[in-house]
Every structure is written in structure tokens, then in C-alpha cells.
């Protein structure tokens, strides 16, 4: 294979192996539940009571004994319980008890007849034949979802809507989460100017800065966008000193083989050690992954490696985004204490033939419908693009189509992998 570079799979495995050694080393912080969205749990969540805390009716209807109701005899109405009332009962023999969804089932009852399945007259209720009822039907038993003291969510889980609901149900008004890792984002290039500037001839605006800040935030990090550094030894050295406090260092631009691609030597001057410099992939081939000490001295094996991962991402915006998703995001999620590190891939069916030259794993901006009919995969199609500088194409895409290294053509209808953003 070409040039002794790692394949994408080898590089991904190497990043995953390093990420596995990382953890969040800073003390947890306590946040209000309403502010916990997207944060990573530092402590497991425990159920404070049985879940549900009482045998709960899942229907509006009549609590009863299943065997009696299934005999289709008239059952005398002995009481009623609304949601919010304490557990009542006991249910006398040959009787039924009016009950609402979410209400505690009276003691002695073992099933709930649905309102729609009964006839009522003169204070009596009867299950309509031929319907029968099994014990436990329309009731969630106390503790069926978990017992008091059970771990309901492990440390390392990301708080999304479901996890927030679970925490609320267990009485957590606040949760302990890991601090967000601080991620330095350094854009380099003599031609790069801030978004507020009007570029002169030959200059372009820094789009990678805001893009990477968004990607970092989405992956659980705290983005720290540094001033743009020019392609000079002095500018890069100064910027790396400034970035020393970061938990993770991302540099864009200046990692190719050009005359003014000075990032690798600058990292080496700061004592960096590289795990790989280049991967057989497109876009993103020049991507660099390594470690660097905070102090700029020799790497100290006793120091936690979490603090010093660095990635040099190629400056082209699509290259930067793809290499971030594939290599930087798993490192960042590991540093944030998150158990689920990605990257995330899915399968889709290719809408139209895709051709390319074999030898590199390719990640092409693509649009996936994500509305699959029953039994069918979602459909994915390439977005036309003018190469890895085409930000517009990326903005019109919602995933990246993966063209395996050996593939020269993928035919319409084939099942393909997509990288999810
Ligand atoms: P480089 O990786 O430095 O060789 O840059 C590759 C291409 O990406 C060049 O066309 C650069 O102008 C462009 N580029 C580099 N950095 C950025 C950035 N921060 N924002 C937008 N484009 C960039
Ligand atoms: Mg450059």
C-alpha cells in the first residue's frame, strides 16, 4: 500500500486504544438538572424508591381479580382511586374497584379491566365476553422497573432527554457531572483572517474556528478559540505556549507537506510525540495525532496523558470536519468521561452509483433521507462537491458516505456505511 501510512481502520484503532487510557481527571461539579443536558454523569444515578413506587394502573378502568373477572360475573363496585390518591383497598371478594391511569391499584386486586371492555349497571361491572383477563394485566408492579437503591444509570452516561427524565423520577434536582474538557482550537495560515474582517485578495475567512468550536461543544468539550497564527516559526511557537493549559489541542492547517506547513516541526519543538502523521484517507490524509506535554518539556510518563493529546487537522474545512469526527471526537469524549465514544456509523442504501480511485478510504459529503419505509434502509446520495474546500456541499449534507479503501465503484442499491455527524 501507499507510502507506509496507516489505513483508516488502523488509525481509528490507535485512537481508540489511546482514548481507552484517558479519563476525566478533574473533580466533578454539581449542576441543576435543568442545566445537565449534554453533560456526562460523574456518579451513578440510584433509585431513591422502588420504580414505580406503587403498583400502578396503566389504564382507566376497574381493578379486579383476573380469575373472577374472566368468569364474566357481575362484580360489585367497592370503591374508587384517582391518580394521586394513596393506595387503597383491600378489594373485597367478588368486587371491582374503579381506577384511573397512574393510580395505585388497591390491595387484593391483580388486574385492571379496561373501561372499553366492560358493561356497567346498578353499581356493578362485568367484563364483556369473550374477553378474558390474565393476572398482572394493565398493572406495573411495584419495583418492576427497579428497586430502591438500584443503579439506574452508570457514571459516564450522557444526559439526554431520557436520562433527565430518569434523574427527575429518582428525585435528583441536581446531578454530579464531569467538567467539560477545555479544547484549544488554533487555526493556522497566513491567508486566514477573522470572520469580522473583509479578506484582501488572496485571503480567506477562518471558517474552521467556528466550525470546530461547534463540533467541540457537541462532543462535550468547552471550546477555546485562540487567535489565528500565521505560517511562521515564531507565531506557531507562541500559539503553542498559549495553548498549553488546554486539555486537548486542535490545530488546523499547516500539516501537509508544503513549504509553509510548519505545524509538525512546531509541535516537535514543544516535545510532541506522534502516533501517526498521515492516514490513507480522503479527505484528511495529512492528519496528525500525538501527545504533547503542557510545559513544553520532555514528555513525562507519570503525567496523565489525558492532558496532552494533540491533533493536527488538515486546513480544508471538509478535511477538518471529517478528521474531527473520526479522531478528535473519540478522544474528547473520553476526556469528558463519556463511555460512548464513537465515531457513529450507520448503514444506508446507495441511491446512485459512486466511483472513485481505490487506495484511500473516502468520506464523501452525502445526504441521507433517514425516513426508511418498514423493512428498508434509509437512502443515501452523494452531494456534488468541488473537493475538500467545498463548505457549501458539506452544509447541504447530513452525513459522509464511506467508500472503502479497496472500492473503485459502489453500485446503486448497494448497502453502504455512512459516518454520522
Ligand atoms: P493547509 O492544511 O494549511 O494546507 O490548508 C489547506 C486549505 O485549507 C487551504 O486552501 C487553506 O486556505 C484552507 N484553510 C486552512 N485553514 C483554514 C481555516 N481556518 N478556515 C478555512 N479554510 C482554511
Ligand atoms: Mg496552510
Topology:
Blueprint: E1 6-7, H1 8-21, E2 29-32, E3 45-46, E4 56-57, E5 61-64, H2 66-70, E6 75-81, E7 95-99, E8 111-114, E9 118-121, E10 124-127, E11 139-140, E12 151-153, H3 161-169, E13 174-177, E14 182-187, E15 192-193, E16 204-205, H4 208-218, E17 222-225, H5 233-242, E18 248-252, H6 263-269, E19 273-277, E20 279-282, E21 288-291, E22 309-313, H7 317-335, E23 345-350, E24 354-355, E25 361-368, E26 379-382, H8 391-395, E27 399-403, E28 409-410, E29 415-420
Parallel strand pairs: 1-20, 6-7, 14-17, 14-18, 15-16, 18-22, 20-25, 23-26
Antiparallel strand pairs: 2-13, 3-12, 4-11, 5-7, 5-8, 6-10, 9-10, 19-21, 21-22, 23-29, 24-28, 25-26, 25-27, 27-29
Bound molecules: adenosine monophosphate and magnesium ion (MG).
Amino acid at each position: 500500500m501507499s507510502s507506509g501510512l496507516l489505513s483508516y481502520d488502523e488509525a481509528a484503532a490507535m485512537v481508540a486504544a489511546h482514548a481507552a487510557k484517558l479519563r476525566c481527571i478533574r473533580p466533578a461539579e454539581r449542576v441543576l438538572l435543568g442545566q445537565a443536558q449534554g453533560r456526562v454523569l460523574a456518579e451513578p444515578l440510584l433509585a431513591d424508591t422502588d420504580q414505580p413506587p406503587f403498583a400502578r394502573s396503566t389504564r382507566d378502568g376497574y381493578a379486579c381479580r383476573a380469575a373472577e373477572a374472566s368468569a364474566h360475573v357481575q362484580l360489585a363496585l367497592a370503591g374508587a382511586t384517582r391518580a394521586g390518591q394513596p393506595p387503597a383497598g383491600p378489594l373485597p371478594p367478588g368486587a371491582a374497584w374503579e381506577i384511573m391511569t397512574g393510580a395505585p391499584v388497591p390491595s387484593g386486586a391483580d388486574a385492571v379491566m379496561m373501561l372499553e371492555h366492560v358493561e356497567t349497571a346498578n353499581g356493578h361491572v362485568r367484563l364483556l365476553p369473550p374477553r378474558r383477563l390474565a393476572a398482572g394485566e394493565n398493572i406495573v408492579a411495584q419495583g418492576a422497573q427497579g428497586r430502591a437503591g438500584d443503579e439506574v444509570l452508570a457514571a459516564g452516561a450522557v444526559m439526554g432527554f431520557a436520562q433527565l427524565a430518569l434523574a427527575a423520577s429518582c428525585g435528583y434536582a441536581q446531578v454530579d457531572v464531569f467538567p467539560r474538557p477545555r479544547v484549544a482550537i488554533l487555526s493556522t495560515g497566513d491567508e486566514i483572517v477573522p470572520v469580522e474582517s473583509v479578506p484582501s485578495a488572496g485571503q480567506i475567512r477562518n471558517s474552521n474556528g467556528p466550525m470546530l468550536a461547534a463540533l467541540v461543544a457537541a462532543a462535550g468539550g468547552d471550546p477555546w478559540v485562540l487567535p489565528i497564527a500565521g505560517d511562521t516559526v515564531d507565531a506557531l511557537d507562541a500559539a503553542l505556549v498559549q495553548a498549553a493549559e488546554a486539555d486537548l489541542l486542535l490545530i488546523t492547517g499547516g500539516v501537509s507537506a508544503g513549504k509553509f506547513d510548519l505545524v509538525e516541526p512546531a509541535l516537535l519543538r514543544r516535545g510532541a510525540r506522534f502516533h501517526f502523521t498521515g492516514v490513507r484517507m480522503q479527505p484528511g490524509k495529512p492528519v496528525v495525532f500525538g501527545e504533547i506535554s503542557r510545559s513544553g518539556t520532555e514528555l513525562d510518563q507519570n503525567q496523565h496523558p489525558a492532558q496532552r493529546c494533540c491533533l493536527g487537522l488538515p486546513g480544508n474545512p471538509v478535511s477538518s470536519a471529517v478528521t474531527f469526527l473520526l479522531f478528535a471526537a473519540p478522544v474528547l469524549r473520553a476526556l469528558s468521561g463519556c463511555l460512548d465514544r464513537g465515531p457513529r456509523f450507520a448503514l444506508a442504501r446507495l441511491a446512485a452509483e459512486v466511483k472513485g480511485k481505490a487506495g484511500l478510504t473516502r468520506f464523501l459529503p452525502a445526504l441521507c433521507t433517514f425516513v426508511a419505509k418498514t423493512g428498508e434502509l434509509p437512502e443515501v446520495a452523494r452531494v456534488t462537491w468541488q473537493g475538500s474546500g467545498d463548505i457549501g456541499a458539506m452544509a447541504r449534507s447530513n452525513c459522509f458516505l464511506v467508500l472503502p479503501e479497496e472500492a473503485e465503484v459502489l453500485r446503486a442499491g448497494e448497502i453502504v456505511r455512512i459516518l454520522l455527524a
